[in-house]
Design brief:
Elements: H1 2-16, H2 27-52, H3 58-66, H4 68-80, H5 82-115
Helix pairs in contact: 1-2, 1-5, 3-4, 4-5
Amino acid sequence: MALMLFSATAFAAGMLMPVQPVARHMALLGQAPTIVAWVLLYVWYKSDVASRGLVTSTWFNGLVISLSFIAMPVYFIRSRGAFRGLVAALLFYAAVIGWSLLAAIASVLFNISNAS
């Protein structure tokens, strides 16, 4: 379910992504799905922490919010061990790249359909 919601935010971000200079007023609106994706990531992180019975500091929770690219791999290694943590970190980076690609594809498709 979380993966489907995460994918939906990428598709929405692509549809709202301003492509033409006349669409600059939509730049802030285009960031809304990205913020929703960050919230989904944090909700998943907190549920994973709770399900594993781990204790995290407020400082580390703030890092997950502000510097997810660095904090999530650290969390994966700490919670899953070295090998499984590295695999999870690689999957996390692949998901971020996949989110960006899905947003770009949605942007291209949406702009092609609007051009005609």
